[in-house]
């Protein structure tokens, strides 16, 4: 009779009811429905206007840059004040 399998050879029960689709099975039109913005952004970022790359997109970039700088300077000042306070001896 031979050896009997210890583990069941039946396939396990299906956990998720949805089937998976491979990328090669999808039609090319359904994979991306938006406009490709990369060429437009390349033109914008490669324009020789003297601005650094992190400020090329105008007001939102300037706002983010200035907010970041303000938080960095504020955090540095806060750390220096905390260090100064921690270095002072406590009065009894």
Tell me what you see in this structure.
The protein has three helices and no strands. It has a domain at 37-87: Cytochrome C Oxidase, Chain J (Irregular), CATH 4.10.91. The model has no long low-confidence stretch (mean pLDDT 83). The protein is flat, with a radius of gyration of 30 Å. It is mostly helical. It is 46% helix and 0% strand. Belongs to the cytochrome c oxidase VIIa family. It is found in: Mitochondrion inner membrane. Its main location: mitochondrion. One of its GO terms (cellular component) is respiratory chain complex IV. This is COX7R oxidase.
CATH C-level label of the domain at 37-87: Few Secondary Structures
Shape: flat
Computed over alpha carbons, the radius of gyration is 30 Å
At CATH level 2, the architecture of the domain at 37-87 is Irregular
Contiguous low-pLDDT stretches (5 residues minimum) are none
Largest sheet: none
How many strand units?
Answer: 0
Given helix and strand content, the structural type is: mainly alpha
Treating each run of at least 4 consecutive H or I residues as one helix, how many helices?
A: 3
Mean pLDDT: 83
Beta-strand content bin: under 5%
What share of the residues lie within helices? 40-55%
Order of helices and strands: HHH
Calculate the terminal CA-CA distance, rounded to whole Å.
90 Å
For CATH, the homologous superfamily of the domain at 37-87 is named as: Cytochrome c oxidase, subunit VIIa
Question: What is the third-level CATH name, the topology of the domain at 37-87?
Answer: Cytochrome C Oxidase, Chain J
């Amino acid at each position: 009779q031979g050896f009997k399998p210890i583990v069941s050879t039946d396939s396990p029960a299906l956990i998720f009811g949805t089937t998976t689709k491979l990328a090669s099975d999808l039609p090319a039109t359904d994979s991306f429905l938006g406009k490709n913005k990369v060429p437009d952004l390349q033109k914008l970022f490669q324009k020789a206007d003297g601005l650094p790359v992190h400020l090329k997109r105008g007001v939102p970039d300037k706002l983010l840059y200035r907010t970041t700088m303000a938080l960095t300077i504020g955090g540095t000042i806060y750390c220096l004040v905390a260090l100064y306070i921690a270095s002072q001896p406590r009065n009894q």
